[in-house]
Please model this.
Amino acid sequence: MRRIIAGNWKMNGAPGTVTAYAEALRAAPEAAALIVCPPFPLLPGFAAALAGSPVGLGAQDCHASAAGAHTGDVSAVLLKEIGASHVILGHSERRADHGESNAVVNGKVSAALAASLIPIVCVGETEAQRDSGEAEDVVRTQLTHSLPAGFAGIVAYEPIWAIGTGKTPSEADVAAMHGAIRAALVTQFPASGAAITILYGGSVKPSNAASLLGLPDVGGALVGGASLNAADFLAIAAAAPND
Ligand code: PGA
Model:
C-alpha cells in the first residue's frame, strides 16, 4: 500500500516560500503519495509550481454551496478550477474555531465530492473523552454524521490532544482506533469501506513516522507543524513503508 502523506500548513506560509518548497517536493520518494495543503491564497502559486508533478494540492476548507452570498467562504467548485485535488474538511481547529458540526462537515463533504475534489475528513477525540473511555464512540459518531452516503475520500484520525503538542497515542491505541474506524466504515459503506484510506494525524515527525505508518490500517499521515519544513516532510514520506 502506497502511503498518503498530506501536509496541513494551517495559517502559515508566505508567497515567497512556495517555489522552493514545491521544487523540494519534486524529490519526493515514489513510495509515498504527497499532498500539500497551504492557505487559500497560496493555492494558485502552488498549482503553477507543482505543474507536471505527482504531488497533490489540497485546500483546508470549502463551503457546502457551489456559489452564492457567503462572504469570506470559498467553494469546492472554485478550488477544483484553480487546480486543487483535495480538501481537508472537519479539522478539529475548524470544528472548534468556527463551530462546525458534523452536519456542517457532511454538507461540505458532499460539495467536495460533487466538485470532484477528494475530501480528507478529520475525526478525533479530546483528552477528556479518551480518559473517560469514550474515544471510539466519539469517533464513530463523527463518522456516522460527517460522511454522506456515497462517500469516496480519505478519513484522518487526529486525536485533538495530540495536535501540535508533541504527544502521540501509544502504537496500541492508534492501531485499536484505526481498527475501530475501519470496522465502522465497512458497516457504513459495505461496498467501499474496506478500501477507504485512514490517515493518522497529531505530532507526526520524522522520528516517529516509521512506527506510526507501519501500524495496521494506517494508510498515511496528516502532518501539521512538521510539514512546514520541506526536509522534515520529505523525511516523513521517506519513512513510509510501501507494503
Ligand atoms: P501537528 O498537526 O502535526 O502539528 O500535530 C496535525 C494536524 O492538525 O493536522
Summary: The chain is about 40% helix and 15% strand. The longest strand covers residues 3-8. Residues 8, 158, 163-164, 201-204, 222-226 surround 2-phosphoglycolic acid (CB under 6 Å). Strands lie at 3-8, 32-37, 56-59, 86-89, 118-123, 154-157, 197-201, 220-223.
